[in-house]
Amino acid sequence: MGLEAHQSEPPRAAVVELTAEQNARIDAELASRFEELRQAVSAR
């Protein structure tokens, strides 16, 4: 399949499905990073 075939297809949105456990782990990781950032900004 050449490049021409791909150009004629409309773009499709990416889909990522997470389980509740994966979502909770991401939330926890981001929360710790946000807390680090908050502390760094508060220290200025």
Helix content: 55-70%
Overall residue-averaged pLDDT value = 87
Shape descriptor reads elongated
Helix count from the secondary structure assignment: 2
What is the total tally of β strands? Answer: 0
Order of helices and strands: HH
Q: Please compute the radius of gyration using only Cα atoms.
A: 20 Å
Ranges where pLDDT stays below 50 over 5 or more residues in a row are none
- How many strands, what sense, and barrel or not for the largest sheet? none
Strand-helix topology:
Blueprint (H helix, E strand, L loop, with lengths): L2 H6 L11 H23 L2
Could you write a compact summary of the structure shown?
With 44 residues, the chain is mainly α. The protein has two helices and no strands.
Describe the 3D structure.
There is one protein chain. With about 45 residues, the chain is mainly alpha-helical. Helix content is about 65%, strand content about 0%. The protein has helices spanning about 5-10, 20-40. The longest helix is centred in the C-terminal third of the chain and has 23 residues, at about 20-40. The chain is elongated.
Keywords:
single chain; 44 residues; mainly alpha; 2 helices; 66% helix; 0% strand; elongated
